[in-house]
Amino acid sequence: MMRRTFHRAPEAERRQELIAATLDCISELGLKGATVREITARAGVTAGLVRHYFETKDQLIAAAYRSLIASLTEKAENLTGDPESRLRDFIVINLTEPVANSRSLSLWAAFISQVGSDPVLAAVHREGYLAFRDSLEGLIADFRVLRGLTADPGICRAQAIAINGLMDGLWLEGCLAGDLFADGELIRIATGSVEALLGLSLQGAG
After folding, report:
1. Contact of 160 with 88, CB cutoff 8 Å
2. What is the chain's pLDDT, residue by residue, as a tens digit (206 residues)?
3. pTM for this one?
4. Disulfide-capable partner of 137 in 37, 82, 113, 160 (CB 3.0 to 4.6 Å)?
5. Domain that holds residue 38
6. How many angstroms separate the CA atoms of 162 and 69, rounded?
7. How far, in Å, are 17, 61, 69, 71, 147 from residue 27 at the CA level?
């Protein structure tokens, strides 16, 4: 177990360190094992500091889930290059480290098991899903325009829902049994499937 060294830091940084320590605990010990005592020990702070930023443990857990989801959305939003390159990179990012690994799987399993019974986590999940899907819709719209097609909102929405579902399934398989697949196999499968869903080829896909 890695414990963080305490140091004086700006408010936003301290808050983020607590969230990072919480995610570390959840990935290794699950939600029940992520006690305030364990989180503060890893963050190198006192329980009083936790209460300074979060009124309850539930608020801290929700903030950790929101941070985890936001990190995925940021990756999609921060892609650079032409529309084709950004769409290809979206596929690669979501099926390789650090998005696709055992830690991500542990975090996903811990949170998703509570989404159905915890209204706060359910709201965070819904918000994150819609933000991620909106980013994907934007990538698809730009790619369609590049290929001389209209960025019809209905078409882009339907394709984003389908591609998101496809990527989720391949991501899960890669995390659970990555050793069953050759290097780059899931990316090639994803690329071919995305091309079929879009009805367009990703010419530079390798």
Report:
1. no
2. 555 554 455 777 888 999 999 999 999 999 999 999 999 998 888 888 888 899 999 999 999 999 999 988 888 888 999 999 999 999 999 999 989 999 999 999 999 999 999 999 999 999 999 999 999 999 999 999 999 999 999 999 999 999 999 999 999 999 999 999 999 999 999 999 999 999 999 975 44
3. 0.86
4. 160
5. 1-55
6. 19
7. 15, 12, 14, 16, 42
Same domain, 103 and 162: yes
Does any domain span residue 4? yes
**For residue 196, what are its two tokens?**
């079929």
CATH number at residue 19: 1.10.10.60
Angle between helices 119-146 and 102-115 (to 10 degrees): 120
Residue with tokens 């780059």: 184
- How many CA atoms within 13 Å lie on the side-chain side of 165? 7
